[in-house]
Every structure is written in C-alpha cells, then in structure tokens.
Amino acid sequence: MADKARRLHFTEDELSDRDIRRAAKKADKAADRADRANEKLPTKRRARITRDSGRAEAVEERLSDKLHQSRQSSKADREKEKAPSKRKPRATARGGKVEATAERLSDKLRPERQSTKTARGKLRIEVTEVTAQKPGAGGRAAVNAPAATLHAARNTVRDAVGRSDNDSEGNAGGDALQSGESAVRNTGNIVNNRHYSHKLKQYDKAARLERKSDAANVEALYRRERHNDPNPASNPISRWRQKQELKKRYMEAKTSGKAGASGAAKGGKRAAEGTKSLVDKGIEFVKEHPKAILIAGVLGLLVMLIAGMFSSCTAMFAGSGNAVLGTSYTAEDADILGADADYSALETALDNQISNIESTHPGYDEYRYDLAEIGHNPYELASYLTVLFEDYTRAEVQSTLQSLFAQQYTLTLTPEVEVRYRTETRTDSEGNDYDVEVPYNYYILNVKLTNKGLGAVIRDSGLTTEQADRYDVLMTTSGNRSELFGEDVYGVSGGEYTDYDIPGEALTDEKFRRMITEAEKYLGYPYVWGGSSPSTSFDCSGFVSWVINHSGNGWNVGRLGARGLKNICDIIPPDQAKPGDLIFFHHTYDAPDPSDATHVGIYVGDGMMIHCGNPISYASTESNYWQSHFLCFGRIR
C-alpha cells in the first residue's frame, strides 16, 4: 500500500497554545485527506513464494519466473515433437494399419510433468497488494499496438503493390488498409486517453493532497517555534525566511525517512568485497611512490581550500540573491505599470457609469447617492500579482484583474417610491376656493457604491500561509521599487504625521476646534478602502465624513464620497479658505470628468491639511504633488 502521510506529535503543553492546537488539528485533517486519496490509488498483486527450505523469492503478478520459463520450454518441446507427426504417414503391411513415424509426445513429457508437480507441492504462496506506480508512456504503447500492426501491414502491401502492374488494385488495397489503420488508431487513442487521464487524475489528486499535508505540517511546526521562542521575529521578511528554512528542514527529514536503510544496505556487501583488495593495492602504491603522494596531497589541499572559498562566496551570494528575489517584484516595469493602468481603466469606466446614471436611468424625481471612494493601492495589486504569477506579463493577468475588480466594487441601484402629498386649491359648486391634500408618487433612485478595498479582497482570496507571508514582505519592501508608482497618494506610506502644531488663533474658532479634536484621535490609522469608522479604519472620504458627523457641530451628512462631500459645500476661492474648510483634489486616480473630486482633506491653515493618506496624517498642500492635483476649497453649508 502507499506510504501514509507524515503526522506530527505535540506535547500537552504545546497543544495548550491555541495557535498550535488549531494548526495541529488542521495538519491532522490534511493528513487524513491525503491518506484517503492514497487508499483509492490502483493496486496490484505481489506474490511471495516460499520453498520448504525457507528460501523466498518475490515476483509480481506471476507465481514464479522459473515456473513461467519452464512452461514456455515445455510448450516449445511439445511443438517440436508434434512437428514430425504432421508428415504424411506411411502404410505397413500389418493389417493395413497406419503407424506414425514420430514417438508419442506424452511419453517424453510425463517425467517432466511429474517433476513440475513435485516442485509445485513444495511451494507456499503469500499474496499481498501494493500501490501501482503512476502510469507512464509505456502503457499507452500497448493500446496503440493494433494500429501499429496495421501500419506495418500497409507498408508491406504498398511495397508489393509498387512491384505490381495493376496500380488501381494496389491503390485500393493500400487505401483500405490506411482506413483501417486510422479507425484502429482513433479508437485506441480514445480508449487510451480516457483510461490514462482517469488514472493520472487519481495520482495527481493524491500528490496535491500530500503537498497540502506537508504545508499544514510546516505551519504547525512554525507555530510551535514561535511559541517556544521568547523573542519571535517581528519583521515580515525575517518571518518569511524563518518559515522557508523550516520548510527546507522538514522536507529533508521527510525524504530521509522515506529512504530507509534497505537501499543503502544493498550495495554494502558488494562494496565490502572489493575493499580489501583496493586497500592492499593502495598500500603498495604508497610504498612505491611516496614523493608523488606527498605532492598530490598538497595540491589536493590547495584545491579544497580554493573550492571552499568559492563555495562560501557562492552560498553567500545565493542566500542574499534569494532574499532579494523573495522581496522584489519579478515582472518587468512595463508589465507592472500596464496591469495597474488596466485596473485603473476599469475604475474609470465605473466612475463614468455612475456619472451617467441620471441619463441612463431617466424619469426619477430624485437621485440619492451613497458612494464609496474609487481607487486602489497599486502596490497591493503588484504584490498580489507577483505572489500568484511571479514573472507575469500584462496579457496574462487580465482575467485576474477582472475578478479582483468584481469583488472590490459593488454598484447597486434601488428604486424607491414614496407617497407624498401636495396642496391643491379647488373650487366648490358655490364658487368658493378650498385647499385639499392630494397624494402622489415620488420616485427615487438610490445609487450605492460599495468599495470592499483591494487589500481586503486579496486577504479573502484564499492565499496560502506562505503566499500571505510573501505578500506581507512585498508590501513592506514595496517590491524594492518604491519609486515605481511615483507619488501615488494611495501607494505612498509612512512619513511624519504628529509633528504639526496648529496655531492657537485657529483654535479660537469653536467649530474648527471641535473638528480637529475629533480628527486627531485617528492620527496614524491606516488607509482602508471603504473604511468609514474607527473599527474598520478609514479611507479619505470616510474619515472626513466621520469627523463632520462626530464633531458635535450639529452636522449629519451620512457616509459620502469625495464627490458627495463637494456637493454639500459652497465653493470658495483659495484666498478665502480658513481652518475647517474642506480641500478637494482631482485625478489622484483616472476620473473621466476633471471636475470630479477624487480625494478630500480638512484644511487646517498655513498650507496644511489633515487627511487620510497612508496613514492618516498631516500633509502640506503646497507640495508639488498636491498642487498638481488641487481642485478647490469647499465650506460646509
């Protein structure tokens, strides 16, 4: 039978740790699935024949190779003995009876049959089942043998036809054979493909589940090491490298465990037989050539030292190279930027669709918008594609981009009908006017855009533990290409965010003081797409909406996007802006309408704002990036 999946054992103290317990349970389940898959693999019988003397010989499928050869030789003898009997018998004068010139075959074979029967009586057969090996190309050749036979026959006939004078008859025979060959080959291929594809699927499934079992074991071992280590690595790169080393040790232990001692023992006896003679010859050679041996030894030592130096350098550079490779984007810059541009194009199309809602869905009295911000962190996209595809091209990832986009954004249009009343003046029969309340239907279209966030979608995409660790490493290092996306507000992270002191005179405005008091509670919170509360963190419009609603100034604007916040403000000239006004930017991602606000912050005066960048921080509105994307100032009505 197939080898059982490797299982780990943990002490009670180790299993008291929740992470180890969960990882161990997951590893056991993975091992169970691998064992079940191995049990379903095809098996074959293996017979073990034991003679009375105790000597045993293993054979596959047949009882004994020797018995098989004996049967073949007996069959050949019978055919040979029968051959003379086929000659024409000669008649004798004795009663007109016909006598065969050959002796009876049974008389000659009787002693050998008796000996074979005796040999059989001395054998004891033990039959066991073992897992069959994965089928290869050799098995398929047997299926196609009939077609090959016809092919050879067709060539023979064609050679004969080539020497024939009747070409039409020859061609007809050759064509018939060719048709037969084609039919047999097609039939053989169909049977062959169905049979072997089914077998291969079983083997592939078993191998896949075994790999999953190994991965679960490595994760459990990693959790145990973290539990036992009082100072675990906090750096994602260190954790990733630690897990890679642990995986290497695990696979080495697994391989050595499968090897067994039998393979090494097979050559032991053979090697030992020649050891004595080789040693004797070596001693004699050393006695005869002492100087040559000394020189050779010195040269060998120098070669070993030089080789050791080069191997150490190679290992050093290989180790550093693997570390750099594991923390870097492996695709070409053009493909990384191209894939990001394609994703941005999908976002632009979505924004354009929302902008045209009122023309594509006419007839409503009111359109109510609840729109999350549109955009993504380009480094999240590049890191995810690298983890999945490594050295990818722009064309290879299009279906993945579509899938990510569909999971990140959800646009829902919900019609709503409200019964409202309007006052109408009517005249009675006596000519007197009077007012009545008349009901009517008021049609509303609710437009809601939900942005789950690209990072959240990636986390929920089913990455393995190893892939998730690699993703974290790439996000930490920005793929070693921190300048790849320029000053993209969604990609740039870090920076000082608590070193700005707002001038005291600005805080004399009570409304602004309340706003900034609320806003500074969240300095350092990360940028999270679609986030709109402290429990989820924020995106830029979610942060500003939260501050407006919770500042205590009596505002309640709900959850608005940058465009929606701009719509509730009066646009003011830059020279009239004051602390507490909102500042809007455009084209921080590709939007079809230049007037669309794509980013928003709270202006705090002196060319500074507080906004949800990555993370929430203070920033200068006079930097080159923000100046190039500045749209307008707005004052909340």
Q: How would you describe this structure to a colleague?
A:
The protein has 20 helices and 16 strands. With 637 residues, the protein is of the alpha+beta class. A six-stranded antiparallel beta sheet has the order 11-16-12-13-14-15. Residues 53-64, 85-102, 137-147, 161-170, 259-276 and 311-321 have low confidence and may be disordered.
Helicity range = 40-55%
Number of E-state strands: 16
The coarse silhouette is elongated
Q: Could you tell me the strand content as a percent range?
A: 15-25%
Strands side by side in the biggest sheet: 11-16-12-13-14-15
Radius of gyration: 42 Å
* Largest sheet features: 6 strands, antiparallel
For the termini, the CA-CA separation is 78 Å
Number of helices: 20
Flag low-confidence runs.
Answer: 53-64, 85-102, 137-147, 161-170, 259-276, 311-321
Mean pLDDT across every amino acid position: 73
Write the layout of secondary structure elements.
Layout: H1 12-15, H2 18-39, E1 43-51, E2 56-60, H3 65-85, E3 90-91, E4 98-99, H4 105-121, E5 123-131, H5 137-143, H6 145-162, H7 167-228, H8 236-259, H9 262-288, H10 290-326, H11 333-355, H12 357-360, E6 366-371, H13 378-389, H14 398-408, E7 409-427, E8 433-451, H15 454-459, H16 465-477, H17 510-519, E9 532-533, E10 537-538, H18 540-550, H19 562-567, E11 569-572, E12 582-585, E13 599-605, E14 608-612, E15 616-620, H20 624-629, E16 630-636
Parallel strand pairs: 6-8
Antiparallel strand pairs: 1-2, 1-5, 3-4, 7-8, 9-10, 11-16, 12-13, 12-16, 13-14, 14-15
Task: Tag the structure with descriptive keywords.
637 residues; alpha+beta; 3-stranded antiparallel β-sheet; 20 helices; elongated
